[in-house]
Amino acid sequence: MAAVAAMAARRSRSRMVLVLAYLGVFLGIAFAVDRSNFKTCEESSFCKRQRSLRPGLSPYHALLDSLQLGPDALTVQLVHEVTKVVLLLELQGLQKNMTRIRIDELQPLRPRYRVPDVLVADPPTAPLSVSGHDDNSMELTVAEGPYKVILTARPFRLDLLEGRSLLLSVNARGLLEFEHQRLRRVPFSDKVSLTLGSMWDKIKSIFSRQGATDPAEGDGAQPEDVAGDRDKPETQQTAEREEPGAWEEMFKTHSDSKPHGPTSVGLDFSLPGIEHVYGIPEHADSLRLKATEGGEPYRLYNLDVFQYEVDNPMALYGSVPVLLAHSPHRDLGIFWLNAAETWVDISSNTAGKTLFGKMLDYLQGSGETPQTDVRWMSESGIIDVFLLLGPSAFDVFQQYASLTGTQALPPLFSLGYHQSRWNYRDEADVLEVDQGFDDHSLPCDVIWLDIEHADGKRYFTWDPSRFPKPRSMLERLASKRRKLVAIVDPHIKVDSGYRVHEELRDQGLYVKTRDGSDYEGWCWPGSAGYPDFTNPRMRAWWANMFSFDNYEGSAPNLYVWNDMNEPSVFNGPEVTMLKDAQHHGGWEHRDIHNIYGFYVHMATADGLIQRSGGVERPFVLSRAFFAGSQRFGAVWTGDNTAEWDHLKISIPMCLSLGLVGLSFCGADVGGFFKNPDPELLVRWYQMGAYQPFFRAHAHLDTGRREPWLLPAQHQDIIREALGHRYSLLPYWYTLFYHAHRDGFPVMRPLWVQYPQDVTTFSIDDQFLLGDALLVHPVSDAGAHGVQVYLPGPEEVWYDIQSYQKHRGPQTLYLPVTLSSIPVFQRGGTIVPRWMRVRRSSDCMKDDPITLFVALSPQGTAQGELFLDDGHTFNYQTRQEFLLRRFSFSNSTLVSSFADPRGHFETPVWIERVVIMGVEKPAAVVLQTRGSPESRLSFQHDPETSVLVLRKPGVSVASDWSILLR
To answer: Whole-angstrom Cα distance, residue 895 to residue 891?
Structure first.
């Protein structure tokens, strides 16, 4: 027995050494990303093949004789001139000014992956009709909207027009490339070797897996593979020249077997009249996307990248394949629905006569029209693209939201301040931090626990020595009306005594290797299995784990953080999973990679909803994301660094996410890596207070940086920043309601609100919150002033601190101190605020409201306030909410229902009204239904033209008017 114990101990030590070795390599990149760990386009064989195709006449032509026009779609076959492979194009006109294009093989060797679960429903179609044709083209009219589609047969291309204006062209540069599936041509000697190897694999499979009945299982094949290959037409079995990396690929020491061969797809889109494009997050780069000729394309491939570089098109943690195009006269969107690794090339051109051919009749002016060309390239799947035709940016937002859903309405507490680090040591540490906020009069809603809280990094558990009584700890926080967030990552420690692992293993819910065994990689716990979240049964199992019975020690005020869900695999290629790993339905990981984190986020949010019987709204933070992730909660910009460039880049990163539906975005305040100096930390708090998700977070090896640990001067500034955040919570909550209802971004670029102001098109160091507040954070060390652009030829802007009024458009140099950042309220808006800052948002939700009314040059203003209980779905299921509209015109402020369907009993009342830009009245009168007029006391400052009305004493839920006489 002693010998056995000694051997076990040696194995344990060896295992720990191996884990530490992997972590050492992984953490070695912490303070400078090692680019060699991540592929360039040249190192990604499919990107290299796609990009090697140069613009020219397309080798594809449409067979007009095959065209079929049904009630919901048009289909037509496309033939490659050389290979004779036939593709099937499906074109749909959609309601709300959208068009959908799908291209797949007519007779594939095996089905290609079509992304499920991202669309909230099948989008309703708008019938197409033929309005003209000749021998080489056909003109189609969309029943809804003034749009036409011209299909040109040889070479194949599509042109979308509004009237006589060309909106965009598809395949105008001839870059449609669809790598059809084929059988591999190999020399006879290799065939013998492959056959013997295959036979041996089958023998091993039979003896290693009892009960296996499908001979295709375990070798990476689809269920259709074995029987299907023999029955396909010879034209599709013809192998063209075999490029390096087409059938197997090496990156460093990692081999990608590619059992199905090359399957990439690519297509180009030309946007005449467009010079500015945005979107396709996540990248640490400028808001306006840059031309990529001569450099790297933008990459979409969810990866765990420590301390990423700024101004770089490298892939990061999430991918949303949506691009927005903007000009002073038009906004368009392209939604490329593909979950595989994707690269996007962007080039700026001039639309010349040779490019447009017969379309010249529809172009206005000369051949000097500016143009942006966008080329999408994905490793597998089909071409499935939605063209969002605007015409305004807000139309594009709503069109995209109709497809993938809107931002989930967050619980109110999640819009407050979050205090986190890797890691708070134990229960005493957590409660000491909690008390620290009270002792220093600082508001806080949530304290966070990272991986060290779990027992040996076994998620859904608590370290018994550090967190022996988690429920008591949670109850203490609940007594302060605060919450706790604990991390639950999607890598599960391989441990025979760990119930979570045993159930996943026994139920076959892990991702598999090519040979059908459970896939194991290395992550924080050491050897880990990866749940297959593409499997609905896995997601249901995961959701059930958040019940209070299954997640021991949890409580209603415990919420969840999903990290490492790209997925992160320390010993995998590019720190992620092997592409030939197998998922539910026989799909390879290469097909689903970018949607893995989406499914983790989905299942976790469902779990939090289910644990309350469907009553409570969840809060889940996810690092990885995809199109549609906005339905499940918040995201953040990942492992940033305590450097000024990382502070600055968080603005365009969150703006880009908001443009594609993910409004609930933030960055780690203070930077995750390294130790910020007090100036940087203060500036980060000031910026974070005006970004949607507001969390301070730090690496294990950084110094503690709770606000009260700073010198008193800096504490006061951070306290002021937190105060601004909590004061504006009614406005934040209302903005999120509109994001939830309409799909509009909460934090938005200036050009969205001022689409014809060319100056705004490239601005990404300032932003708007809704349509009312303009924020210019200070993001340079030692700054004594900043240049602020105030847009709008008919606008006035009021400094929210001094009430000084400025007219737009103009650029101002504004002096700043360490305690100030420029924030302005637009004339014509009304912003609701809470003026009593308490320990948490839950302590403030019944406090009275102060209305800040900023008058336009015409003496008008408007705003709204959304109220409900702040945490349940009752606003949906029972219509228990208030949406009030406040309007000022003709010297009268009026409160009325903005949505009469909602009703909610609330003690909230109007405590004060501050009106900017008004002359002193002789009297102020309050009118309410069923009561006589009453006079209100007021004060007027002639220097700032600000009128303050004190204690009108009216309910926010009632109709009333305040008249200035």
So the answer is: 14
- pTM of model > 0.85: yes
CA angle 856, 862, 863 (to 5 degrees): 130
Cα→Cα distances 820→708, 777, 788, 813, Å = 19, 9, 14, 14
**In CATH, 43-179+263-404 is 2.60.40.1760:** yes
Q: What backbone torsions phi and psi does residue 76 show, to the nearest 5 degrees?
A: -155, 145
Task: Return the closest-CA partner of residue 662 out of 600, 736, 597.
Answer: 736
Residue 723 scores a pLDDT above 60? yes
Structure token pair of residue 249 = 């690929």
Exposed, middle or buried: residue 811 (CB in 10 Å: 0-12, 13-18, 19+)? exposed
Which tokens is 171 given? 């395949």
Instruction: Outline where 636-749 has alpha helix (H).
Output: 644-659, 678-688, 712-727, 729-742
Q: Residues 947-963: pLDDT tens digits?
A: 999 999 999 999 999 99
Q: Which residues are catalytic?
A: 563, 639
What single DSSP character describes residue 412? G
DSSP string, 913-948: EEEES-PPPS-EEEEETTS--EE--EEEETTTTEEE
Chain segment 116-155, per-residue pLDDT in tens: 999 999 999 999 999 999 999 999 999 877 899 999 999 9
Alpha carbon of 665 to those of 644, 747, 872: distances in Å? Answer: 19, 9, 22
Phi, psi of 198 (to 5 degrees): -65, -40
DSSP class of 809: S
Cα–Cα distance measured from residue 840 to residue 208, given in angstroms and rounded to the nearest whole number: 57
Which of 3.20.20.80, 3.30.530.20, 3.40.50.2300, 3.30.365.10 is the CATH number of 412-493+532-752? 3.20.20.80
* Dist. CA 143–CA 94, nearest whole Å: 9
Tokens (6 digits) for 857? 């040059």
**CA 706 – CA 418 distance, rounded (Å):** 11
Torsion-angle region of residue 366: left (phi > 0), alpha (psi -120 to 50) or beta? beta
Whole-number Å distance between alpha carbons of 598 and 622:
8
State how far the Cα of 830 lies from the Cα of 825, in Å rounded to an integer: 9
